[in-house]
Structure formats: C-alpha cells, structure tokens
Amino acid sequence: MENDKNKRTQDETKFKPGNRFWEARTKHGIDKMFKTPKILKDAVIEYFVWVQDNPLPSAAVHDGKVIMVPKMQAMTMKGLCIFLGVNNRYFGQFKARVEEALLADPKGEVDQKKFKLNTEFATVITWVEDCIFTQKFTGAAAGLLNGNLISQELGMRGKIEVNHKNNGGKFEPVQNNVIIRMPHNNRPLVNMGKQADDSGPGTDQNQSQP
Fold first, then answer.
1. Can you give the pTM of this predicted structure?
2. Which domains does the chain have, with CATH numbers?
3. Cα separation of 115 and 106, whole Å?
4. Residue 9 belongs to what H/E stretch?
5. How does 107-143 read in b/e, with b if 16+ C-beta sit within 10 Å?
6. 64-110 confidence digits (pLDDT tens)
7. What is the CB neighbour count within 10 angstroms for residue 30?
8. Which of 162, 169, 196, 200 is most buried when burial is the number of CB atoms within 10 A of its CB?
9. Quick one: which of 108, 85, 100 has its CA closest to 23?
C-alpha cells in the first residue's frame, strides 16, 4: 500500500511530456468574468501562473544522455482565451464594446456607474496585453523563446536594404531598421536604425529613408 502511494506521488510530480493546455480552465464562470473587472483579472492571473507552472518539455544531452528539461512557455492572447473558456473573437468584441462605450461617454456624464466599470475593464485589458507582450519580448531577448516566431507575433519588422549599384564591388547594407510595434494599436514603440558609412563602396546617397 505504501509503495503504491509513493509511486503515485512520483508519477504526479515528475515532469511529463506535453502540457495539455486545452484541458486547463479557470475556476471562474464566463458571465462573472466579463461583468466584474476584478474577477477577470483574477482569472488572467490564474492563466499566468499556469503558464509559469507548466513549462514545455525540451530534449537536451547531458553526460552523453538525452534528458528532458523544462523550457519557457510563451503567453498568448489565444492561449488566455482558451483558458478563460472563450474564443479570441469574443474577447476582441468585448474589448471593442468597452472602448466604444468610453468613446461615447468619455467623462461619465451620461452614466457614471457604467463609465467607472468600463474604465476598470479597459485598465485590466491594457494590463493583460502589456503583460503578455513583455513576457514574450523578454523571453525572446533572453533566448528562452524562438526569436523569429516572437518577432512575428509581436509585430516587429526588420528590413535590410541593399544597394545593387555596387560597381563590381561588395554589396553593402545601406540601412538596417528594426521597428517594434505594439500589437494592440500598431503604434511604433522602438525604431532603431543604423545608416551605413556614406563613403563606403556602393552606397547610394539618395537612398530613401523609411
């Protein structure tokens, strides 16, 4: 009996392959979540904790043996929606209704109670988007997540322009721009560019800037 108990404990605590994300659900009901900002925030925190507590399995070689090691799992809006028990479109429509209500009554002059509720929901939604953005960005920057996939997910755009008028010389990059855009409003967050030396071979003085 004791051996069975120990075996069961080991089976429950050992690192298992996969995370079965589709089975994870918040304890809060959909109706309550989207009527009370605090409950929605609590449910989102449940998702954040679940992601942290359920890393993905990754194979690695240690001392000549293949072992499974935990790897950081990226937070996503779609993953959050699955956890909340809604689809991505439902969450997007809810966000749009909140924004429309605040635009229609920006100071709460028509209905102060609804204005306060929508303001709190807007604050929670912005916080959710910023948390997910930051987790993926910092994870990719530290090499814990796939940089290419995360850059596409976050709307980061990179461009290298090459001058083909090199007069037989070596092709030189004219400019390397990296534009980071916030995913929820497409506004540029960072615009980093380095202009090539004008005296370098094949540099086009008339190259247009983005």
1. 0.63
2. 11-148 (1.10.132.80), 155-210 (no CATH)
3. 8
4. helix 2-13
5. eeeeeeeebebbbbbbebbeebbeebbebbbebbeee
6. 888 888 888 999 999 999 999 999 999 999 999 999 999 999 999 99
7. 13
8. 196
9. 85
